[in-house]
Design goal:
With about 210 residues, this protein is of the alpha+beta class. It contains 7 helices and 5 strands, in the order βαααααβββαβα. Strand 3 (about 150-155) and strand 4 form a beta hairpin. GO terms for molecular function: cysteine-type deubiquitinase activity.
Length: about 210
């Protein structure tokens, strides 16, 4: 049983030729034809550092959920700075701050295997899923969101946030997309999911 409420989900998945073809095709289609409007407050960071997708997944999860981050901490300051910057400027900020090195080192020391070097090749990748409000739109053909929430995928290798449709049950919606987009296109079993959840208020104060 996954503790509720879940604020973000990070997926580890194998990169396959079929997935790469779908990714490039979808990114090109979004660039040429557009997609459902994305909440302008979403913080998406373009990945420019090799083998940093796990760290990028964590940053996307914390930056786009209402979990409490320690005030004045390097992470809180980084997220606050990102709010007024473009995706490219956020990438540059991440490259220049010690935050990335600290998070990457902590993740490596906490894991069971050594983190790969930035220039080494890996066939596994991380992406992040979050829920976000649907911006009001008067465009024709835009589907109406009865719940007002959308499921977004945040991957620094993509062209930007990817709208995955209306979201009425976050965890169930993520599971459906993971099966349809990722699991069904490979026979690999190299998948793992991490849920960022917040304990109920009464338990947190116990």
């Amino acid at each position: 049983m996954v503790p509720q409420p879940v604020k973000a989900v990070i997926l580890l998945f194998p990169i396959t030729p079929d997935y790469e073809t779908k990714r490039l095709t979808e990114d090109r289609q979004i660039k040429e034809e557009g997609q459902h409007p994305v909440d302008p407050t979403i913080i998406w960071i373009k990945q420019t550092i090799g083998n940093a997708c796990g760290t990028m997944g964590l940053l996307h999860a914390f930056a786009n959920s209402d979990v409490t981050v320690a005030p004045e901490s390097p992470l809180a300051k980084f997220i606050d700075q990102c709010k007024t910057k473009t995706p490219e400027e956020r990438s540059k900020l991440l490259e220049e701050t010690e935050l990335f090195a600290d998070i990457h080192a902590d993740a490596a020391s906490a894991g069971q295997t050594e983190a790969p070097e930035a220039d080494s090749r890996t066939d596994l990748h991380f992406t992040c899923f979050v829920q976000a409000p649907s911006p009001p739109s008067r465009e024709e053909g835009i589907e109406v969101d009865e719940t007002g929430m959308r499921l977004l995928e945040l991957d620094g290798r993509r062209g930007g946030p990817v709208d995955r449709g209306i979201s009425t049950n976050f965890l169930e919606d993520v599971s459906k997309i993971v099966k349809e987009v990722y699991i069904n296109s490979t026979t690999s079993a190299e998948f793992s999911m991490l849920a960022l959840s917040v304990p109920p208020q009464d338990e947190a104060e116990a």
